[in-house]
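User: Batch of two.

Assistant: Item 1 of 2:
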Amino acid sequence: MSLQDLSGAHCLQEEPAARPESAAATLETRPRLARGFRFQWEPAQDCHVLLYPEGMVKLNPSAGAILECCDGERRIAEIVAELQTRFAAEDIAGDVLAFVAMAGERRWLAWDTA
């Protein structure tokens, strides 16, 4: 499996409004699910989804793999290392950072600025 098309998530309801400028994610960032979101495997959809009060976001496998690691404890550098090992992938740091940034803009993820 390769980590491709990381932005490929299908929203089944209207998504929350995008967040304006926020602190950029770095390899030291520890992303976590934003308040009001729940990440889970959905057998009926045969994929991971993000649930929130107004709807659901159906995630592609790459997005699901990244969000599964976003527990607020692991730094993005650690998430990258784990995914590179799990999927025998190389040089995915830029893709993971791009996804985390997009997920932050969509308010799926949050992180503390230090």
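Item 2 of 2:
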Amino acid sequence: MALPPPRPQLAANLIVRAADGRVSLTTLLRHDRRLGRVVWPPLSAIHRRLAPGLLRGAAARMTRGGVR
């Protein structure tokens, strides 16, 4: 899944892989300008905190009611 860049200075790809009852999320980020290098560190801390809960929530929904 490729998301449009949140800012022109950043380009991001999120790769979600599900296999054998496990889910992994890989975030690939490219920052072309200095502003991107400044913006990403605080955003990455938030991303690392939120991503596991989002994946757990998605897995719980899929287990309860199937994929919509």
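The longest helix spans residues 34-65.
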